[in-house]
Amino acid sequence: MSAPARTARTAAPPLLRLGGAVALPVRPRPALLGLALLAGLAVASVLTLTVGRLGIPLAELPAALAGTADPQAAFVLERLRGPRLAVAVGAGFALGTAGALFQSVARNPLGSPDVIGVGAGAGAGAALFGLLLPGILPGPAGAVLGGAAAALLVYLATGTGFRDPGKLIIAGIGVAAMSTAFTHYVVYVVARDRASVLQAYLNGSLSARSWEHALTIGVALALLLPCAAALSTRMAIAEMGDDIADGLGARPRATRAWAVALSVALSAAAVAVAGPIAFIALTAPNIAKRLSGGHGAHAFTGGLTGALLLVLADIAAQHSPIGDRLPVGVFTMGIGGVYLGYLLVREWRKGAL
Amino acid sequence: MDAAATLPRGRGGVRRPGPARRALAAVGGAALLAAAVLASLVLGGRETGLGDLAGVLAGTADPYVATVIESRYPRTALAVAAGAALAVAGTLMQAITRNPLAEPGLLGINMGAAAAIVTGTAFLGLRGGTASVWLALPGAVAAGLLVYALGAAGARSGLVRLVLTGAVVSAVLSAYIQAVTLSLPESFDSYRYWVVGSLAGRDFGVLWSMLPFTLAGCLLAVLLAPALNALALGDEAAVSVGVNVPLVRGGGLIAATLLSAAATAAVGPIAFVGLAVPHIVRAVVGADLRAQIWYGLLAGPVLLLAADVIGRVVVRPQELMVGVVAAFAGAPVLLYAVRRTKEGM
């Protein structure tokens, strides 16, 4: 599924020198892509803040950001759209990075932390603590606990930890099936209104987010992204195959285990603030990979793509003519499915599949 | 991505069990099925014994007891039919995709059935068990055929492509289901009762509406089994012994679609029966698909009945739905199997 033809062009990349001690290789295409994604994200953010009945007029936006605007604009920025946008960017970035790490490890473009049951486990946790045993833990904390428990169960069930992607995915199917069955059971036994609220949460929702949510995901990213960056070189080597990676001293099995653990932690953080949002972790790294046309984990560009996708999906969710305030997860699922279809059709045209 | 690489080698693939072992398995399977049927008839929220059952059959029992036991006839019969359908569908899917993890859900069948039920209850105002079946069946078949048409069209059709198409169609249908159910509470209500997977409250009408499809699918499976055996050797080998590969594969997929559509329409999406039964059967009777299908017809009902009976007994006087029990009984088996396989599968 890869494109080995590109490896022919392996001239040394230009270096970005910071004094005499630091020399970072600059690969032009990923760097340009990163800038383009950042620009897109900025445009989408401005759109989020300005569009719609409650939107802040574009002319007033600088004043609002500086804190000198009229109270209505300040209210929209500080209470309604601002935190929502921040959570969307943070959760999207976390999901995109998580998916990029996982796909690199699984060597499979269809891998994502959801495959090993993190999303389903989070749903079961939210159902248990939100509806069946209310009052012990808040729902989002229950979701994180559920997601972590699912990942732990998968870790224990494989007998080899996170080292073997094949086993990981199969064990994930089993754990996800149990979690989903439990969630369906809870949705079945509780009253309809409460079940409906849970159902909306299970799709992943960005409505009524506060700055605390934004802070949560921000802290999680600040802790986890440096780890991902530290791991990325080794992961690029591990993608070459176990034998070569062993020879180069990259310890591929340990690298994979760490990458999966990071991926799970990142998606758990996203679940905590926005619920299990479908498909971002799956599609964002694929899009980033396609745009940058290279190999490697694409953790950073994948994260940016994820943030952009989630912000765009949230604009659609806020202003869609259909449905009454549908959760953003419904849109990511629909858009993600269609995109996956497009991807497949393209591959078929080329005869690659 | 190489489907052939995940084919289970060694265990079951090489060993050929003798006729004695197969006969023993047949007798044991039939005995288990009889025991499961009896258990399903006498165990439940209201305790009854085998004596009561005998009384009902002889027509001498207390009318109340008779009502209780007779109310368990339809769900028992339905469990047998749905279990058999799921088992054969799973066997076919695993043989055709040469992937031991293949399941009918991969073809988008569950989501097709669910989407049709949601559409029917939300926009057509339909209600009730039999209506669900008549909605779910065409939905499931349509989704399965759509996936097959998209995934297998063109010169270079492949199994990976088929499975990916199934994932795409499932995702889009799932988004549609969520959008509708979250907007319209009434359709959410009927959807959540169906999606959990339950045998309770089903009448014979549900059975009669799914039975023709089950029988047709089973017949097709039995007819295709020898050709599917050849297909297991690889496409080139199958062609060289005179098998029309696209025809056999297409027929097998249609049979699997019919079977799992019928079962899913009748009892909701049930996890793991279609996945687990082929593994159990393969371990006992070996890789020959002709045998696998016949023994699957015994093992599938046993498993589904056992899950249903357990669900009725563990939280008496309430009931756990059979879909929940199947997931919680099946998943640990899968996890155990994963643990035992060698690294780098």
TrEMBL record, chain A:
Annotated Gene Ontology cellular component terms: plasma membrane
InterPro entries: ABC_BtuC-like, ABC_transptr_permease_BtuC
The keyword ATP-binding is assigned to this record: no
Major location (coarse): membrane
GO molecular-function terms, A-Z: transmembrane transporter activity
Superkingdom classification of source: Bacteria
Short name of one Pfam family: FecCD
UniProt entry keywords in alphabetical sequence: Cell membrane, Membrane, Transmembrane, Transmembrane helix, Transport
Location(s) in or outside the cell: Cell membrane
The keyword GTP-binding appears for this protein: no
GO term, biological process aspect, one: siderophore-iron import into cell
UniProt-listed Gene3D superfamilies: ABC transporter involved in vitamin B12 uptake, BtuC
Topology of the protein relative to the lipid bilayer: Multi-pass membrane protein
Transmembrane segments: 31-51, 85-103, 115-136, 143-162, 168-191, 212-237, 257-284, 296-316, 328-345
Family membership: Belongs to the binding-protein-dependent transport system permease family. FecCD subfamily.
Protein name from the UniProt record: Iron complex transport system permease protein
Organism ancestry: Bacteria, Bacillati, Actinomycetota, Actinomycetes, Streptosporangiales
From TrEMBL, chain B:
Biological process annotations from GO: siderophore-iron import into cell
GO CC terms in record: plasma membrane
SUPFAM superfamilies recorded: ABC transporter involved in vitamin B12 uptake, BtuC
Pfam families named in the record: FecCD
Alphabetized UniProt keyword annotations: Cell membrane, Membrane, Transmembrane, Transmembrane helix, Transport
Membrane topology note: Multi-pass membrane protein
Compartmental location: Cell membrane
Membrane-spanning residues: 23-43, 76-96, 108-126, 133-153, 159-184, 205-233, 253-281, 293-314, 320-338
Molecular function via GO: transmembrane transporter activity
Keyword Transferase included in the entry's annotation: no
InterPro entries: ABC_BtuC-like, ABC_transptr_permease_BtuC
Top-level taxon of origin: Bacteria
Coiled coil: none
Primary location group: membrane
Keyword Membrane recorded: yes
Family the entry assigns: Belongs to the binding-protein-dependent transport system permease family. FecCD subfamily.
Protein name: Iron complex transport system permease protein
Species this chain originates from: Allonocardiopsis opalescens
